Amino acid sequence: MFKLLRSQAKIFYWIIAISFILFGVVFSYGSATSGCQKSSPKAARQANLAGKINDQIITGEQFDWAYSRLLNATTQQNPDRQLNANQRAGLRRQAWEEIIQEVLINQAIKEYDIQVSDAELKQRFETNPPAFVLNAYRNPETGDVDMNAYYSDLQNPNKDWSGIEVYVRNTIQTEKLLDIIAADVVVSDDEVRKEYLAQEGRAMARYMGVLYAELETDFTPTAEQVATYYDSHLEDFQRRAKVGAKVVRWAKEPSESDWNDALEEIAEIKQEIESGSITFADAAARYSEDGSANRGGDLGTFDRTRMVPEFTEAAFSLPTGQISQPVKTQFGYHLIEVTEQHTDEETGDLFQVTARHILLKVTPGHTTLNMLQEKAKEFTDRVNGGTFVSTAEAEAQDLLSPEPFIEGRDIPGLPLSMAGSLWAHAAKPGDISPVFENKDCFYVVMAGDHIPAGPAPLDEVKSQVELALTKEHNKEVAAQKLSPAVAEVRKGVAMSQAATDAGLTYAVTDTFTYNSNVEGVGFGTEFNKLAIEGQVGELIPEVETLRGLFALTPTWISPFDEADFTARQNGIREALLNRAKNKKAAQFLEQRRAAAVIEDYRQ
Asked: 3-class DSSP state for residue 268?
């Protein structure tokens, strides 16, 4: 029935339709595992190598395929969405991360010597085939799968299943690896009951408390308190790694040639109108690159303060019904037609006009963009870490000196620059980047010093430390106000009376769940959990939320539905087990990643 691995080439005919895991199979069987023969990232890029993961070479074609797959999927999901430079950089980063994950998985499969027999493969095809395979046999009208046709094709010796066989084999291997990784994962009966309670639990309660927003305090921590708290809570003030950089950018501004082209085009439009072959309004609807185009260029009535000076001067000096010469403004070239003039009855001064216009925006053309990109490339070819800044300054280039930045964020002062940010974090000080591009400019980055992750200096987080100390102080003050009232409730005083006597907030809740909002308390807080897991009438003396410090007594808790729990417990257990396995798998991959030698040669 099977022609196992009969034609590796045919994998690529299936690859578009199936999940990313097959890409890992292509890596495993389709690329060299010897060491990279090139001595530097630049040489590796020239050889079209994207990188190396341990001893696994990743070619440029493999990376491009992974990126294209993500790009196509994103485009299909949002066909009207234009991706910006950061979104494309994010997809490139995601593609690389997925490649790393798949390679590490396949290397682990090899290390554990995980095998799949033909019998296992046959059973999977017969009892649990991939969903995308069955979709080919699905009736588009009824949604039913023609299993007879599927089994018939499965038995057909002329039907080539080799690509899907590789996918299914690798899927089973990955499942076996997960079983090995998560062999010690168990879910207790108590965990299942608690999860059911989290999903179905309901309660009502009465509570009293101190709202932090209403707490009057003039507390200001001393310098000694700030320093002591900071030293004892360094783990709370960690900062991510940062890198410094210098950037030179070339703005995508139209050249003189672009302006001349636009002037020539708008002159032709003016001639077309004056020849009578088209009206001004129709020409505006056809040619204008302005929001007024769908109104025939109508701008309504305006005074001398509404428009930019060049436009105003032309419009207010133009006779009614006459078409202006092309008017140059910061927006481009305009043709203006005044349809009505409004003068002061007493002075005769012209104070308003009604007009329409045609706007041709002037943007850099392909020739200009190519020239700018070539200038940027030429700059990178003749500078190094020692001459980058001096050359940029000598040539009066647009040189930026941004503050150090974290990975994956824009370079400060340069919107949509994630690609450059990611590059700088992977580069060595003094390295010069390739030419990057966003919608506004081309730019080149010189990587600076790396600032490792770790505790942020006290002067950077002083306000955070002061806030933490203030919160601690507020909680202490709130506890001092709440505890006497709690003591009164324990003596038998009604909570409403104890709250009134102590000047506390008091309320009775509506029914709430684990994750719902309790008015005045917050969304899905510990308050909800303690109430639902508590006992009716039993005082819970203290629980803190972001809004304040509270004491509560559940007044009603939904009964535990044993019959419903029995019916659902297996599904809940499976979900918890999968969650725990996935967590274990993530930890496994993090450990493998930390131990891996990963070389990134991409630009």
From this structure: helix
Which H or E run includes 388?
Answer: helix 388-394
Q: Span 256-363: which CATH code?
A: 3.10.50.40
Question: Residue 40 carries which side chain, given as an amino acid letter?
Answer: S
238-239 and 436-437: which strand pairing? Answer: unpaired
Phi, psi of 292, rounded to the nearest 5 degrees: -80, -5
106 CB burial (10 A radius; 0-12, 13-18, 19+): buried
Residues 489/539, Cβ–Cβ less than 8 Å: yes
Taking only the tens place, the pLDDT of each residue in 224-283 is: 999 999 999 999 999 999 999 999 999 999 999 999 999 999 999 999 999 999 999 999
pLDDT of 345: 86
| CA 434 from centroid of its chain's CA atoms | 24
pLDDT for 3 equals: 38
Taking 50 as the pLDDT cut, the residues of the chain under it are 1-39
SS3 letters across 151-176: HHHHHCCCCCCHHHHHHHHHHHHHHH
Q: What is the pLDDT of residue 40?
A: 60
State the pLDDT at residue 216.
86
Let me know how long the chain is.
Answer: 603
pTM: 0.73
C-alpha to C-alpha distance for 261 and 365, rounded to whole angstroms: 10
Residue 124 CA to residue 103 CA, distance in Å, equals 24
DSSP per-residue string spanning 209-249: EEEGGG--------HHHHHHHHHH-GGGGEE--EEEEEEEE
Of 114, 100, 113, 103, nearest in space to 30 by CA: 103
- Contact residues for 391 (Cβ-Cβ < 8 A; gap 6+): 379, 382, 383, 397
Predicted confidence at residue 10, as pLDDT, reads 31
Distance, in Å, from the CA atom of 127 to the CA atom of 147, rounded to the nearest integer, reads 11
For residue 81, what pLDDT is reported? 84
* Three-state DSSP state, 290: coil
Kindly give the interhelix angle for 495-502 and 458-490, rounded to the nearest 10 degrees: 130
The pLDDT score that the predictor gives to residue 78 is 86
What is the spatial distance between Cα 298 and Cα 557, in angstroms, rounded to a whole number?
66
* Lookup result for tokens 């129709």: 282
The CATH label, of 3.30.70, 3.10.50, 2.60.120, 3.40.50, for the domain at 241-253+367-452 is: 3.10.50
**DSSP label at residue 202:** -
Contacts of 420 (CB under 8 A, 6+ apart): 245, 247, 411, 414, 433, 436, 443, 445
